[in-house]
Specification:
With 413 residues, the protein is an alpha+beta fold. Helix content is 13%, strand content 31%. It has helices at 2-11, 75-82, 136-139, 204-210, 223-227, 229-234, 393-404, and strands spanning 36-45, 84-88, 93-101, 131-133, 147-150, 155-158, 163-166, 185-193, 245-260, 278-282, 292-293, 306-311, 320-330, 334-337, 349-355, 362-378, 381-390. A hairpin with a 4-residue loop joins β6 (155-158) and β7. The chain is globular, with a radius of gyration of 22 Å. The two termini are 38 Å apart.
Length: 413
């Protein structure tokens, strides 16, 4: 029954078991003018030592009930947090100061961050509702093909032909760059056939079947596998592996890494959970379909309040794991939810599927980055959530700047 429910949700337009007639007509992507984040000046920093352990050094959140009591963030504080470090493949590092333009400041509801209390284990709450995606016809096609694995053990999502969005703590612990990030690599999903991998002669149709998916592997499915195509199609949705194929990764080196200063506070300060995101530029472009960025809507404008993300949970032996759940609470910068997730899935791209304006089609966009497990104070009681960092208009502008190198293509989002 669980698997049947998964496939129903996967292919219903709203990705929820909700009657479309009951959906708010406002459940769509609304393009809005984005504040401008502009590079002001860049200076060189000393090269990092890459000696930190792979764990977060974040501070305690003040709690959901105290959001409204927080003072408004001023422009200079925002600009300081949105300034960013860039670490290059050769180990050099720069700091780029930015200016924010066309921003209307509003009272913030962000969580404060003073003193850390973090449990590293990512949580599965009650019944495990995760789904392992094992069929190659899903693994090699959108949206699952956008999920990637980092050599540091995290996940990420393709957001351009050259870029991967992930969590900042996957490469930096809040004070220093972690061990293993010196030669950071990104693994893209690939299906291989068991056996020698030699090419065989065959019909054009056979060759087309062998080259299906977003990447041409240059090998042909063996006769036994092709003979079972009909039976496998009848079993779609049961989560089984397909034929003799096995999952592997094509590893690509990272050219440079961008991290907001709000996270990379260094040894004199604490990282802010609100800024737990990073962008990796690949040394070699991929040819897969990627997921576009979107500005995170408020909870009431999300169908069923549901979010979705796929990553490589450590307890599932390199399997791609998909999950969906409803958001329990939100602040200006964070989603609080109980999506079942284990270590390894952090850095995954959280996405929605909403209608495009003036069209009948639906489109998926990344609206947050899964950060992991966090304790927060709720009415004086420590409560645990799995947390995702929302892509706000300012963060959209910053990530867009990182992708394009300028703000010319980042006016609307």
């Amino acid at each position: 029954m669980t698997n049947i429910l998964f496939w129903l949700i996967l292919f219903t337009p709203a990705w929820t078991l909700i009657d479309e007639s009951e959906l708010d007509p406002d459940f769509m992507w609304h393009l809005r003018k984005i504040p401008r984040v502009v590079n002001e000046r860049t200076s060189y920093l000393t090269s990092p030592t890459f000696e930190a352990d792979a764990k977060m050094v974040v501070s305690r959140a003040c709690g959901i009930e105290c959001q409204k009591e927080l003072p408004a963030t001023n422009l200079s504080e925002l600009e300081d947090s949105l300034s960013y470090e860039t670490v290059f493949e050769n180990g050099t590092r720069t700091l780029t100061r930015v200016k924010v333009q066309d921003l209307v400041l509003e009272p913030t509801q962000n969580f404060t961050t003073n003193g850390a209390s973090v449990r590293r284990k990512r949580q599965v709450y009650g019944t495990d509702s995760r789904f392992s995606i094992l069929d190659k016809r899903f693994l090699t096609n959108f949206p699952f093909n956008t999920a990637v694995k980092l050599s540091t053990g995290c996940s990420g999502v393709l957001v351009s032909p050259n870029h991967v969005l992930t969590a900042a703590h996957c490469v930096h612990d809040g004070k220093d760059y972690i061990k293993g990030s010196r030669k950071l690599r990104v693994g893209l999903l690939k299906m291989r056939n068991k056996g020698s991998g030699k090419k065989h002669r065959g019909s054009k149709r056979s060759r087309r079947e062998a080259n299906s998916g977003n990447r041409k592997e240059g090998t042909k499915e063996n006769l036994k596998e092709r003979g079972e195509v009909g039976r496998r199609r009848k079993k779609l949705g049961r989560g089984q592996r397909v034929g003799e194929g096995r999952l592997s990764f094509q590893w690509t080196r990272v050219k440079n890494t961008h991290i907001p200063k709000g996270w990379a506070r260094g040894r004199t300060g604490y990282a802010a959970l609100d800024y737990d995101y990073a962008l990796l530029e690949l040394k070699r472009a991929h040819k897969k379909k990627y997921m576009e960025l979107g500005v995170s809507p408020t909870l009431k404008k999300m169908p069923g309040g549901m979010i979705h993300f796929s990553g490589f949970d450590n307890d599932r032996d390199d399997q791609l794991v998909y999950r969906f759940c409803s958001v329990s609470d939100e602040s200006n910068d964070l989603f609080y939810q109980y999506c079942d997730a284990e270590s390894g899935s952090t850095g995954s791209g959280v996405y929605l599927r909403l209608k495009e304006p003036d069209k009948k089609s639906w489109k998926r966009k990344i609206i947050a980055v899964y950060s992991g497990h966090q304790w927060v104070d709720v009415h004086g009681v420590q409560k645990d959530y799995n947390v995702a960092v929302r892509i706000t208009p300012l963060k959209y502008a910053q990530i867009c700047l990182w992708i394009h190198g300028n703000d010319a293509n980042c006016t609307y989002g």
